[in-house]
Amino acid sequence: MSEPLRYLLSDDEMPTAWYNLVPDLPAPPPPALHPGTLEPAGPDDFAPLFPMDLIMQEVTGDRFVDIPGEVIDIYRLWRATPLHRARRLERALGTPARIYYKYEGTSPAGSHKPNTAVPQAYYNAKAGITKLTTETGAGQWGTALAFACQMFGIECEVWQVRASYDQKPYRRAMMEAFGATVHPSPSDVTEYGRKLLEQDPSNPGSLGIAISEAVAVAAQDPEIRYALGSVLNHVLMHQTIIGEEALLQMAKAGDTPDLIVGCTGGGSNFGGLTFPFLREKLAGKMSPTILAVEPAACPSLTRGTYAYDFGDTAGMTPLMKMHTLGHDFIPDPIHAGGLRYHGMSPLVSHVYELGLIEAEAIQQSDCFAAGVQFARTEGIVPAPEPTHALAATIAEALRCKESGEEKAILTALCGHGMLDMAAYDRYFAGDIVDHDYPEAKVADALTRLPQV
Ligand SMILES: *Cc1c(COP(=O)(O)O)cnc(C)c1O
Asked: What is the DSSP letter of 369?
């Protein structure tokens, strides 16, 4: 008998509800605050930006929320995604550890992002919204939202961080193939963008700036809303489809994870994979260590301050309590564009404060080395973001080799890197620079945290 390499689920076995971790936590997360009054933000404060169904999901106390049939019908284009056992990588490492990876690269965008883009487009279309605006860093979120809007017949307008717009023309073309309009950010479309371009015509942009532009356009038109690809509670909840499937697939493999590892930019693929397992852990049914891995150049969890801050650079969003490097901190241009965000999901920040997860920061050259080793053994070129999780996975597997421990490790391979080959090209040319933690820049940005 050959050894199984993948664990699949049939359509009938696919989970039909998303999971909300909040009611299972020992303490509730601190509420978002209105930026003017500093009072807890109510549903009306979010209404200019999001449709009511999503606002209610943001604050719900229900443990499970049913996935609408219209959303399941689109999920089924690529879900359930496979859970792989990385046997060839295990053999190459000579480790007794068993390594599993949940592969989200089979989606239309090539990452986990459509898991939330599809329900977000669905609830907006249902509310009569005709256009969604958003930002994109590496291009993954813009691609996912462009696809999702197309599925429900609404328009999509994307502000792509200028550095990425210039470096990744194929991401822009892919968004356009899915029918979106794409601007480089800062752009001359918004007042804030024009102001920044006046100060510096070569401003490379940042996720925070692009969010400010997309929010500004949505806030001024009642038929336009904004969509965020990470960070918020409802986004993490939509992503739990990953972990709910993985729980069923690990059971098929007859195994239980001892360690679960994910990369964290805003925290959505990490929360999506790990929160259903954290539920099982809190219920005493398993006891995995849960590890978040972030880039050394943008280490919000391991080095950031836990404080109320804005989600965007211009300071227009409600205040969220999160691990932050300061809302106007601009990270060095590492290749994992999806991990270049100044803050961390309030929910991931909260579970970190509660001591329920661990975190670690890794330099990008170590990540690319892990990505190449993974590609050469497993046959999938990973996106630069999940190479952070792979580097930590491989390091742990090598520790198991030393100690002889037979751990089961589960990791999120949240996207493939086929539109990130320019970054690999730089790596092979020896041009990858590691950026140290920018202590002074962060200290400066933190002086401008809102006073709460
Ligand atoms: C967007 C993105 C990330 C970072 O976002 P999270 O919300 O932290 O998951 C990581 N990996 C990939 C492939 C992405 O597209």
From this structure: H
Ligand 1 neighbour 141 (Cβ under 6 A): yes
How far apart are alpha carbons 333 and 433 in whole angstroms? 10
pLDDT tens-digit readout, 293-317: 999 989 999 999 999 999 888 888 8
Q: Is the CB of 107 within 6 Å of ligand 1?
A: no
Over residues 56-72, the mean pLDDT reads 97
> What pLDDT score was predicted for residue 1?
60
> Which of the four pLDDT bands, split at 50, 70 and 90, describes residue 208?
confident
**What dotted CATH number matches 6-13+68-110+234-446?**
3.40.50.1100
CB contact at 8 A, 395 and 366 = no
> In the numeric block, which tokens belong to residue 407?
């751990």
Decide if 212 contacts 314 (C-beta within 8 A).
Answer: yes
- The rounded Cα 66 to chain-centroid distance in angstroms is 22
Instruction: Tell me the DSSP string of 400-423.
Output: HHHHT---EEEEEE-BB-TT-HHH
Q: Is 20 in the pocket of ligand 1 (CB under 6 A)?
A: no
Q: Is 51 in the pocket of ligand 1 (CB under 6 A)?
A: no
- Range of weakest confidence among 78-92, 120-134, 437-451: 437-451
Q: Per-residue DSSP letters for 186-253?
A: S-SSSHHHHHHHHH-TT----HHHHHHHHHHHHHT-TTEEE--SSSSHHHHHHHHHHHHHHHHHHHHH
Tell me the percentage of the chain whose pLDDT exceeds 70: 100
CA of 336 relative to ligand 1 center, distance in Å: 9
Which whole number is the average pLDDT over 49-58?
A: 94
Which atom of ligand 1 sits closest to the CA of residue 339? 4
C-alpha 180 – ligand 1 centre gap (Å): 20
State in Å: Cα 199 to ligand 1 middle.
30
CA of 269 to the centre of ligand 1 (A): 6
More confident residue, 226 or 331: 226
Which residues have CB under 8 Å from 54's CB, separation 6+? Answer: 120, 123, 124, 234
